[in-house]
Amino acid sequence: MERVLNDQQKVRRQKMEDLRNKGINPFGNAFARTAFIKDIRDNYSQFNKAELEEKKVDVRIAGRIMSKRRMGKMCFMNIQDKTGRIQLVINKADLGEEPYELVKASDLGDIIGLDGYIYRTNPTEQNPQGELSVYVLQYTHLTKALTPLPEKFHGLTDKEERYRRRYVDLIMNEESKKVAFLRPQILRTIRDYMDNQGFTEVETPVLTTLLTGASARPFVTHHNTQDLDMYLRIALELNLKRLLVGGMEAVYEIGRTFRNEGMDAMHNPEFTLMEAYLAYSNLEGMMDLTEGMYCTIAEKLGKDTFKFLGHDICIKAPFKRLSMVEAIKEQTGIDFSKEMSFEEAAELAKEHHIEVEKHFTVGHIINAFFETYVEETLIQPTFLYGHPVEISPLTRANEKDPRFVDRFELFIGGKEFANAYTELNDPIDQLARFEDQLKARELGDDEANDIDMDFVEALEYGMPPAGGIGYGIDRLCMLFTEAESIRDVILFPTMKPVSD
Questions:
Q1: Which of 71, 100, 297, 346 supports an S-S bond with 92, CB 3.0-4.6 Å?
Q2: DSSP structure class, residue 60
Q3: Torsion sign over Cα 379, 381, 382, 383
Q4: pLDDT tens for each residue of 416-443
Q5: 147 CB contacts (<8 Å, ≥6 apart)?
Q6: What's the rounded mean pLDDT across residues 209-218?
């Protein structure tokens, strides 16, 4: 299909041809910079005009033209590189007539290289010190932008367009660029923290033949050579626990996982998960690990309070610790710590307008009460522990009350941020749990797990007592970057194709 160009795009293509006719490659060559814009601002903002003229510090920078104004034989531009923006001062008398023609023909969005020296403009009423700038002595065209940038004052404000055309979003929106650079800093802090705790980072397969490790619907793909249907992994768990059996003792992985489910402000079908497993630890050990990691990130970012979904979240240890049945009792007055029949639990559910699905047990009803009446009330960091055994097929049962398991979820702002277990290492119990999952699937639970017999056999070799945890990295980044949507912290979120 032939593309229809608007008038501005046609003009820019003609300018592209004009550059070629002058022997200039419109799409440029390598350009060796000596400084980034942030370096100039950090190192020279404190000097006044006279001091900078005396120093006459030469620099070679490159960036994208973001604004431009001409005043006779002078031109003022603002360019942007990955570290920030700075003004250029271009004088036709010093640059030369032919290069100045290139300056005049340039457009917003073009990428240019510049040689010159650090300079400060004359003081004005609005800017008594003058504007920190680069006085340009040599101008190099690097890349012609064939499509104009969005209008200056409104930028790219439509959120769908921002996510769909992230490249334009990063050019126009400083906050988006800040988040894009902050996320890898957070991940680096996490890795440093885990490494300092004695963990080893590993990688495990993305493709698997079994649906295991979490309750979720998968994406299905096909291996042509083997004529084999496979899943994109929904969790990292079982392979990491195999490594505990093998003696690695403290392992973690940060990797992409895939769940064939809905999209909203907190969910993307492709997301980043971190799971960690520590031999000879337990639930309390995972709580301590988590508190330490979150507080370390906050310390690295230089503050302990973050705005998340309209709440001021304080990241300071110790986090609150609360059992699921205690939390339900606080909100509803119902005490699920006492044993009750399915019929009794179902009647309570009916009275409280909770739908009881075909595969539900008492444990499922308890969890439904939690999700309905408690989850959104957990605003400050809270470790919510004591989940029913029926909704935690891979978790060790509590020794005092086997109806519940040694598991916690970290809730912040009413949202789940982490899920941790005292790991199940009894192969007989594990097999029975897998078999229960198959029964649940037969009753209509399409998120139930397969039986992984190799994992059961691995446990038969002996896995040490262990604690394990999974962190939603995207949500963690939402908290620490104060983002409103998961799409703000994923550079290229899943988007529905635009209809023709």
A1: 100
A2: E
A3: positive
A4: 999 999 998 999 989 988 888 788 777 7
A5: 8, 9, 12, 109
A6: 83
pLDDT in tens, 365-406: 999 999 999 999 999 999 999 999 888 866 788 989 999 999
- The answer to whether 468 and 142 have CB atoms below 8 angstroms apart is no
Q: Amino acid letter at 162? A: R
Nearest CA among 301, 332, 348 for reference residue 479: 301
Report how far residue 365's alpha carbon sits from residue 429's, in angstroms, rounded to the nearest whole number: 23
| DSSP structural state of residue 405 | B
| Residue whose entry in the numeric block shows the structure tokens 């593309």 | 3
Residue pair 465/278 in contact (Cβ under 8 Å)? The answer is: no
> What order of strands is seen across the sheet that includes strand 219-223?
207-208, 228-232, 219-223
Angle at the Cα of 316 (from 310 to 321), degrees rounded to 5? 90
78-104 pLDDT tens trace? 999 999 999 999 999 999 999 999 999
| Global pTM value | 0.91
What distances in angstroms separate CA 87 from CA 48, 135, 241, one per listed residue? Answer: 16, 9, 55
Count of beta carbons in the 10 Å neighbourhood of residue 470? 23
- pLDDT at residue 195 above 60? yes
Q: What are phi and psi of 133, to 5 degrees?
A: -145, 180
Quote the radius of gyration of the chain (alpha carbons, Å).
Answer: 29
Q: H/E element holding 156? A: none
E strand spans, 190-261: 200-201, 207-208, 219-223, 228-232, 250-258
Measured in degrees and rounded to the nearest 5, phi and psi for residue 102 equal: -65, -40
pLDDT of 1: 62
Looking up tokens 């649906």 gives 211
